[in-house]
Amino acid sequence: MKRIVAICIGLVLLQLNVKAVDSAIVTVTKKDSITVIDSIQKPQKFIPKNLLDSLALPYTLRHYFFQHENIRGITWVSSSHEESRDLPRLKSIKLRKASQSHWKFWILFTTILFVALIRLMNVKRFDEIIFSAFDLHADFKSYSDKTGNYFASNLGLFINFILSVSLFFTTILETNHRVETDNFYFLFWKLVLVFILLYAGKIILNLLIGTVFRMRGISTITLFNTIMVNNILGVVLVFLNLFFVFVTDPTMVRFISATILVTILVTVIYRQIKNLIMTSQSGRFQFVYIFIYLCALEILPWMVVFKMFLNAW
Hints:
This protein is mostly helical. The protein is about 70% helix and about 5% strand.
């Protein structure tokens, strides 16, 4: 009986020993290391009691500072940000209607009407004004006696000159796309205002210099030639603008614009030669003073204008 009890106790102890070995807990750490805990009891979670215990615990540090240490692949995320400009497409550009320039027709109509009315009012006076631009004599007696008769005609022709030259420069800027604007009608009137202020300042400056330095003769000749030559230039520009505004062929447009520019340049050179000849006939001033006067008030401003125009060309 004692032997049977001893055998039973031995079997029970042997079974308990086998279960203890089989109940080994295998834990996998972040470093892929295998730790075998040979114990029947499960390991209890370590609870830190202070800051040093928290820093000493590897799990805490890895949880907050090495969250992605087990990531073995790299994922590329590509994103593109495209900005589209509000521009018309090619089809829209082809089908876009050309901007209408009805205002140019009315400006041309006004300039032609100005010339026609001035000539109809007095044909003889109109012819005298035109031929005075080619007269190289410095005798103003005939003009001073008829100042009232010539003033209205000269004023009308000078307004026609300002309108014609402003229309030409507006059209050439629009054709060559030199100005970024969609309202060339407003640009035209700004050019008209600029030319009016320029010539008003020129007249005042010539009269002031002639009065202060006692050079009324030179200033009178300069202003006379400026008005008369510009008047005939305005008449010529009326007919050249008719072709320049309404011709659509690019080759002809370039040819007419070049013709108008050459005409303006020749007119400026002719006016300076006419000033030199007429002022030298007075005999009151030396040629050096006359040349300096013309360079300061006539030649230099035009050289600056043509230099700016050539730089923009």
